[in-house]
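Quick look at the format.
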Amino acid sequence: MAAYALVTENFKFVSLFFKSKDVMIFNGLIALGTVASQTAYSVFAFNCPCSPGRNYCYGLAAIGVPALAFFLVGIMVNKSTWDLVSECRLRNCRKLSGAAAFALVGTIIGRAVVAPLTWVVISLLQGQAYTCALSEFVDPSTLGKDFPSDMGSEVIAKFPCQGSVPTELQRFWGEIERRLKYESQLIGWLLVAGMSLAVFLMLCMKRCSSPFGYLQEDYWSQYRSNEKTLFQRTAAVHAQLLAAENIKNFFGFVALDKEEKELLAEHQSVSPICSTDWNRVTGVYLYREKNGLPLYSRLNKWATYSLEHNVEAMDKEMDTFS
């Protein structure tokens, strides 16, 4: 029974993949932004050197370096990344099982690869970078008997730049370009097919492993969104009021506008929140229940146990399958 419960808890964590419609919309916006960036880059910045040895490096860099940058940015802006960092820093990940950690890292990487893969796919479908990178490796013997067999990679590498191709070889430019773009676009479409299949399989996994029915999962999504919005809004006001109190104690007055004065009058005083409570609501969260009632977040869990004034039970629960 204990093993079954452990497996069940770990499968619940897999449901973090594509947690809500907001995630899908967000990923779509990232993809559209990446398409616009790649198009602008191709129009204004891409400039193949048309030189042997340099074509390959430049073409791969044009595809790989922006993709790597997008990936790192995606990792950094993902809140789950810092939840995992906080979990390891505060609790040394001692209660985070290997399966749960793998699933969480999977969600982080899954979100982060949207922009890089979009960049790579659009680059391949356009074909400029691939044509530049692979042009010098075209085998002259495959271009027909009319193509001079003594032409080396120095001449072949010039074909991405039509104006640099010798006059007598201009008629081969179209054939080489079509061949390389065909290869590039074929790889691009295969990558699109692979991505689509991966998304489909993850959505199926998410549906099969989710601890919720459809309606409750939709409710959980709305709860998380509302909790995040209200928490950020309330934290901003709390910080403002606490700062106003400290400034007033220092100067004897504080410069506030009318709305801020009304807010300060409504909340006569605020107290700093202790670090222990901040740590309790920070970190990785795995859905749990208490007496059959759902606990939708670390904050929900903290509030539930806080009402019981049972600090020992709260600390034990906060460290359990965080």
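Next, a different chain entirely:
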Amino acid sequence: MTGYAGALRVDETRETTFTGVVSYSQSVNQHVAASLMYQNEGHPDDHHRDGVGAQAWLRSGYNQPGWSFAAGVGAYYYFDTTELHSAGPAKYTNDHGWAPIGSLQATYHLPDSRWYGQAMLNYIAPTGGKNATTSLLLGVGYQFDGIRGDKLHIDDANIDQAVTVMAGQGITNSLDSERSPISAIEYRRAVGRYVDWTVTAINEGDSPQSKRNGVATQLWLIRSITPKTEIGMGAGMYFNGKVPDGEGQRSHKAGLVSIGGRYHITRRIAAQALWNRVISDYHRDADLFLLGVGYSF
């Protein structure tokens, strides 16, 4: 697992801005790996773009002291808040779409340590008039080799269930980033040793931009990184009973993409932190940050 920070250039306009990436990589064998990632592409003029992606990698080697090198290709799903410069009531849009992503990595593995340093070059090339970006990032990572990736905290992953109560803050993906207190209740069930299913009731608060609530259902890829700690990425549908700005005139369906972690304080009690992205078709995307405590049974 690696965290990066660096600089990004918008190829068409030659603007530069900051960028950051969080990535999880899983070895297939010594020379092949797969990864999931989230990238924030900074704030060039008129655009706030970020996204999630998946890549396949070819590597020169793995888990040996010294240098190794890798090349990866994959798909990137982006969320772009775009300023319209319009005289009308609509000031921005939330655009979504797919883009190919290509990456090069150079990694230095410290001797007798699970820690490593990494430099990465990313190229993202959307179609449909969206700007391509090139980013150079430096990161630090930690290898979890030797730790079983399935659900270490339970005897039988197929009967693991939990109810979690959460609260936090919602941020509308607009030019003003309106904020609102939010809350949620989640039911989670393991449907495989690496897969969870969740049903979550969500209340996004009462501000005009975020007055939305409903129920989401997601499938999660889960990986234990210590005997008590899990990380995961989920995706699914969010069915809204109430929506912002004109109830009854908006779509009552949205997508929901999530990244989260759970820490098992005891056999039954777990703390949970989640980032959720609501993907709407009416320009009311939102980031939902939630913290909570759950009970497993």
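The mean pLDDT is 90.

See the schema section for token definitions.
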